[in-house]
Specification:
This protein has ten helices and eight strands. By secondary structure, the protein is of the alpha+beta class. The strands form three sheets. It has a four-stranded antiparallel β-sheet. Strands 1-8 form a two-stranded antiparallel sheet.
């Protein structure tokens, strides 16, 4: 007699309370840090390498040209190659038809108008909140065994990394027992963010502070100058934004409610196949 397979549901406890709480605090902090950081960047929307600003030869610059085909246009200069980015980067036209210069549009900055002082206040306050929250998470991760148990990939997972990349590219996701733990790509991306990108952002942020430079002058030597630190800070932030976008996309394609519920209540539903008949 043939056996028919049916899908069964198993509820597991996936995220501890500390992980969930620090996750949502991180969401708030990162959003404010990004938007206020763009406000600060808009005060001088260009990036350089070295200890000083070479205005004639920036690595990246968001500027404008007065004499575009139909008037002023926003321009992004990337290592000497210029792109028309009107309305996105460099400048754009307001509802009244007037052209306004900026690096990033004011609609995605905090505050939503030109105010370097307020942007710095928001940025520095939430930077310290982010650091404190991160230290709480790191302490929990190390002391509870969360790092070893949930985040460190084992040898078998590392050997199957190329298969995991192929499966994700084809939208084939883990189910059953495999879905009870993070896959190798999740683990590696979390480790890179936690132990490389976030510390790099913190260190380069401190390097840009004149007060910190006076107390720890070796920071400038490590990053090759304040302008290099600013550029690395921007690149690190961009990579974290990329991580967040991919993370949100994966939440959407693998089950919005199931993923959200697991990060709110800790409970995650696994679908398994069972034979019947």
């Amino acid at each position: 007699m043939a056996h028919e397979k049916v899908m069964a549901r198993e509820v597991i406890y996936r995220h501890a309370g500390t992980v969930r709480l620090t996750h949502w605090i991180n969401v708030l902090c990162l959003l404010v840090l990004l938007m206020s950081g763009l406000q600060i960047f808009n005060a001088h929307p260009a990036l350089y390498f070295g200890s000083t600003s070479d205005f004639a030869d920036p690595a990246v610059a968001m500027t404008y040209e007065r004499d575009g085909p139909d008037g002023p246009i926003g321009v992004t200069d990337l290592f000497g190659t210029r792109f028309d980015t009107t309305g996105w980067l460099g400048g754009g036209y307001e509802a009244d038809g007037e052209f306004q210069r900026y690096g990033f549009p004011w609609s995605i900055t905090l505050p939503g108008f030109r105010s370097l002082a307020k942007g710095r206040s928001w940025h520095f306050f939430f930077a310290w909140a982010f650091v404190i929250n991160g230290l709480i998470y790191l302490g929990y991760t190390l002391l509870s065994g969360h790092l070893r148990r949930d985040l460190a990939p084992d040898r078998g997972q590392l050997k199957g990394i190329w298969q995991s990349i192929k499966d994700h590219a084809l939208f084939r996701f883990d189910h059953g027992e495999e879905a009870k733990r993070y896959n190798v790509l999740q683990k590696l991306s979390y480790l890179i963010v936690i132990f490389i990108l976030l510390p790099l952002m913190l260190a380069t942020g401190l390097t840009m502070s004149p007060g910190m430079d006076a107390a720890f002058p070796w920071l400038l030597d490590i990053f090759g100058g304040r302008q290099s630190a600013r550029t690395i800070h921007f690149i690190s932030a961009s990579l974290i934004v990329l991580f967040v976008l991919v993370h949100v996309f994966m939440v959407l394609v693998t089950g919005v409610w199931n993923n959200l519920r697991s990060m709110i209540t800790g409970r995650f539903v696994i679908k398994t196949e069972e034979a019947e008949g």
